[in-house]
Amino acid sequence: MIPREEPGPVLNGLPTTLPDTDPEETQEWLESLDKMVEADGENRARVVLLKLLEHARSHGKLDVAALTSTDYINTISAADEAPYPGDEAMERGIRRMLRWNAAMTVQRAQRPGIGVGGHISTYASAVTLYEVGMNHFWRGPDAPGGGDQIFYQGHASPGMYARAFLEGRLSATELDGFRQEKSAAPNGLPSYPHPRMLPNFWQFPTVSMGIGPMNAVYQAAFNKYLTNRGVKDCSDQHVWAFLGDGEMDEPESRGFLQEAANEELDNLTFVINCNLQRLDGPVRGNGKIVQELESTFRGAGWNVIKVVWGSGWDPLLAADSDGALVDLMNNTRDGDYQTFKANDGGYVRREFFGRDPRTLAMVEDWTDDQIWALRRGGHDYRKMYTAYKAATETKGAPTVVLACTIKGYDLGSHFAGRNATHQMKKMTVDDLKAFRDRLDIPVTDAELEANPYQAPYYNPGPDDERIQYLLERRRALGGFTPERRRAHKPLPKPSAKAFDGVKRGSGKQEVATTMAFVRLLKDLMRDKDFAPHVVPIIPDEARTFGMDSFFPTIKIYNPHGQNYTPVDHELMLSYREAKNGQILHTGINEAGSVAAFTAAGTAYATHGVPMVPIYIFYSMFGFQRTGDGFWAAGDQMAKGFVLGGTAGRTTLTGEGTQHMDGHSPVLAATNPAVVSYDPAYSYEISHIVEAGLDRMYGPADEDVMFYLTVYNEPIVQPKEPEGVDAEGIVKGMYLLAPGSFDGVNQDARRAQILASGVAVPWALEAQELLKRDFGVVADVWSVTSWNELRRDAMDADEQAFLHPEQGHRTPYVTARLADAPGPVVAVSDYMRQVPDQIAQWVPGDYASLGADGFGFSDTRPAARRFFHIDGPSIAVRTLQQLAENGEVPEDWPLRAAQQYDLLNVNAGSSGNAGGES
After folding, report:
1. Is 747-907 a CATH 3.40.50.920 domain?
2. Is 523 annotated as a binding residue?
3. What is the pTM for the complete model shown?
4. Fewer CB within 10 Å: C terminus or N terminus of the chain?
5. CATH architecture of 88-310+375-477
């Protein structure tokens, strides 16, 4: 047995270090409280104390801490409930049809030969939470002020499909294609809210735990951003996020609450379905998750509305003059509440009300059935309507509605409240019959007995008054939801002139590719039609990336403006915040930045306004730290540019292991929505960005994100060569520096060196060493994208495999190297797995060099020598390839290694040892 006398966590202490200047008076106050408790009872004393605290806080200067947790009862009393505006009988009939069809969607998906799974209990607990919103609150896309954005809980997707079935948007055939996207195509439905898989239906992917609440916060913030900047008036749009209480354990679920409060996102409402269960059991068996969440949200500055008990409890609470029932509710743990609902009314009488003779007396005249009929608040449409109404009327703060429900509600005793209910997907014939009877669904025993896995859906047809009511409510609210629309205004394309500046190179000045990109962005921002659509996103260290130059011009977005004098206000590049600022400076917050990127990158669909997010971050902290966010962005079909600054394993000298990125292109390659580039020079960046704008926002309208790795190592940026292979830059590789035969025989040995990003100068160094010291002529290729070369080659192979009648298209990399003489050596500032991506499509001998292993603090030349990716190392590896083929003497590689002192890290000299621009 769990000892019930153990105290719970202290949530509301009021610590103070102030001296007690009058102990006698203090004692009088304490004695007065004791006498009040003795004379009038604990409940009266509680009321007076709460009133005193509330009154003290209203003075403004007393600095009394707020109570973060209140009694385990509804926040809004029965006396303050709003009148319900809907036809209650009609809506009850709709909810019953939805319960049945949602359950049958999962039940039928378990038919023999299919068995694809599904979740039958989540939506059962949340029907009322959704239907009150559907019928009375959520504006569709045709609403005058624009539609609301609703983040549906992933496991509740069968309920959304069931509603679309009644609305006539989905057919029974499509419901039968649940979780069979390919085998039932074109009638398959994805398991969860996946916009990429059902692009005209779902708006937001939510099933990856924690991503939904995070993205909802930044969607609401972005709506305010668009409004404050004058891009689009989103002031009449509201963001709703439906979450599970177990999901709130995820750091992302709670980590952005302060952001929402700081920005006063009163256009945001979280609805947390508190059915007290995670996937395998209770959320807080020994505690109270509602109280914990209330404390967390109140502490973060949110408006909290608890909907714990249904209307049946109102007379009992009204009669609770001495607070015995409230006290019992406060002290009963979640594990017990779950157990109560897995039993019957007699059990609840004994094990709940029976804990106190005063509460037992309250129900002495009640039958067990009456006790069993007492519902939790999340199943009471009147309570939920009042909560939603209060949430939408709250100003100056976001709201969370904590709604208590039962997982598997109405599915029967085998499901409701059971630990295994999340994994239960099948109903027996008896379960189906009982479920049918409770819901009054006109399905016969014979139909259920014939095949339990083919229990029919129920749709009475468009002439039924319930269906007409349902459709009328959606018409009145502006159309269906969820619904995703793709039509949007065209993005004004910047003039070609904007891309020309960085193509001229940097003259004699050494400039890192990070700064080259920033210079290109400055030129693009001079285009008055294009510039308003740009959303620069920086988690922190804008100065590291040279983006502080934007502070005084486009300014940093802050919904409150700048109400202080910055310490650097006298400087030209001082920190400037403004209500209509354009830069989203999210602080040390990569996950939030990805959420902001997602909101901006999907504005073309959510708001019909194309925006171009440009998110720059420490390369190491991108796909490694926030990869799940980028997958969700890909699912939501976000567009925009992602800049991995200070990229590479060896360029960020001195920072050490955690900052040295040797693998982000590998991680980026795993995301099908990411188009990844590793440019070496500013003119390459110009062509890639222009191509990216064309692919994402031009006629092709592709749902991809462009990822560019840029470096902090300053080099002289060369002028774009005459007749440069612009197509090759975009496709992934081009011949940068053909080998010269000046000073060597025309029959000199040949080789090909492939390099990307910051490694290109080392390849050019190796080209020079090979010719000078060994008479070998090497061609140097700039590989702007190993990933795109691989994808092109894979597409060619797939075509040959699946459609041989179309012939075998030669992969781009194969075609470019087909006539290139000699072995190929590939190098980058990343692990060998990056250049190895193209190995199988390179004709002839292929070897790669890379920075495998952990990074470390040192000079750039020393690090490159340690990893053996510098110029001399490339030269030695090339000679080894030639020697293995018998094209040069066997001892040449050893001679070269000794000549260059290859095993001595202090002998390294490749690259710029200093400079942080």
Report:
1. yes
2. no
3. 0.92
4. N
5. 3-Layer(aba) Sandwich (3.40)
